[in-house]
Prephenate dehydrogenase (Herpetosiphon geysericola), 660 residues
Amino acid sequence: MPHTVAILGTGLIGASLGLALGTADPETAPLGRCRVIGYDGSSQQLRIARGRLAIDDEAKTAAEAVKEADIVVLATPVQTLPALMREIAPHLRYKALVTDVCSTKTSVLQWAKEFLPSTVSFVGGHPMAGREKVGAEAAELDLFKGAVYCLCPPVNATPEATNLATAFVETIGAKPYYIDPEEHDIYVAGISHLPFLLAAAQTEVVTRSPSWREMQMIAASGFRDLTRLASGDPVMHRDICSTNRSAIKHWVNESIRVLVEMRTALEDDKMDDLQHMFEHAKTMRDQWLTLPQNQRPGEGDQLADAEIGTSISQRLFGNPAALLRGGKKK
Amino acid sequence: MPHTVAILGTGLIGASLGLALGTADPETAPLGRCRVIGYDGSSQQLRIARGRLAIDDEAKTAAEAVKEADIVVLATPVQTLPALMREIAPHLRYKALVTDVCSTKTSVLQWAKEFLPSTVSFVGGHPMAGREKVGAEAAELDLFKGAVYCLCPPVNATPEATNLATAFVETIGAKPYYIDPEEHDIYVAGISHLPFLLAAAQTEVVTRSPSWREMQMIAASGFRDLTRLASGDPVMHRDICSTNRSAIKHWVNESIRVLVEMRTALEDDKMDDLQHMFEHAKTMRDQWLTLPQNQRPGEGDQLADAEIGTSISQRLFGNPAALLRGGKKK
């Protein structure tokens, strides 16, 4: 009996999940061949997902989509989850696994506890992959290939639910990484939400200037890369900020502190202080690039960077990749 | 009589210039076929540049390199320029054009006035292209293709010198952009030096945290792209800060101001304020991407995006690749 997966929300992430499930090798993928039922509030998004074969069947409502599913993936914006959970609650199968893909987890686990019936299991999920584009038309079948996929089971999760969530993540080619929801939220605020805010800040700083008319003519790849995330969906990022306020505020504060250090060094002409900071940042980033999950070829310059990073760190420290391996991974 | 170009410093930029000169179409390039003489303080860099055919001949000293050159390109770090100018001054040909590639221009023009003889012309130059990698081994023949190339002639520049600098820029496939040196420095501080500082700040903020050991396991493409510039050469960036202190300080201050705005919005739960800021940033960046010079595929995510865009659009709409072709492809 093949697994039936309902994907609610067939945008970038939902449709990419569907493509990954549909193209997984049924011989080796833990879930085997799945039947994927899609639902989206936008009939256009649903049509594109269907046209790209990201889903096998379209459902007319969320309730219809979930009623035969043993895995239900909530792939809609975080703010919509409470209402969506309430809507599907009466229609979920006994012992179904419900999971989500939102980039904050504490609130989501609270909502699941509040709104989902005790006859189903919820395991929070967050794939560490994405694009600044939106919609099913931007979906990619290998978006999750080799990516870390955070899983946050509640304290009372059953082994069956946890195993099924793990099988789902492995079937789409990602690497399961179990993490406490509060830890997840503070870490993700630093390595994902803060980068978006800094990209938006860089864009705001220069585009608010009356000189932008001329500056825009000479802005090049450095500006383009640093601001890439600022082209992301403003509403999604507003909602992320709203559900992860205090963690994000912590990292914004830390950023202000580092920028004030830089300003002081510039004012006092302490160029050696700046150089030391730049050296530390370069060393740490180059080390990070040598981690196994950063070694895969991806969009853009990643592979090339990883190669250089490796060679530099190897020259400096031997082979640090071995030291960094084996973090908290089950 | 072909032009003779001396490139002093055959690192990333110098060797890329040599490759671009050597592969320019002699029928259509304004300078025609050039003879390129290279010199570098590192014999290894010089050997790599020669091995990659970025230069035709190796010189043993800077003085030897320039003595027959009608165009001299100073492609060494900004801090080395005063000494280098003094060294070559007695050996420069009558009416030679001297130019540089540094990312700050006010100091460089002052040094040229002070250290170069009045028998030669200096026109400051700054190609708006680069990579976070260093050395002749990272050189690319199409690094400057379609890129804006700032030119800062001094007020007393001769038309011959300005025309020759323009021909040089057009020969390597770049677009000359004339700009006042003070304006150049403040603009470049905003769109090039500040992005580096924000990349370094993001890296410092998270890697100084005791949680970095776990955060590094889930950091993904957002962190990678936002911090790419932090893998750049620390000494080069120290020198840039040192020669463009007040302009950079201005933009660091503006960044602190915007981050404080964000922090206040988070503290006061003013999510609409944040959303408006994010929308403005997205609109401005997306507009910037539509400028003609940003339409070409480049390093980083743009090339990958263009390719992915092609495959998706092909599936959806037939073959639009013809529309996208004609850019830079490695």
Residues 270-330 of chain A form one domain. Chain A touches chain B through 112 residues (CB under 8 Å). Chain A has two domains: 4-179, 270-330. Residues 296-330 of chain A have pLDDT under 50 and may be disordered.
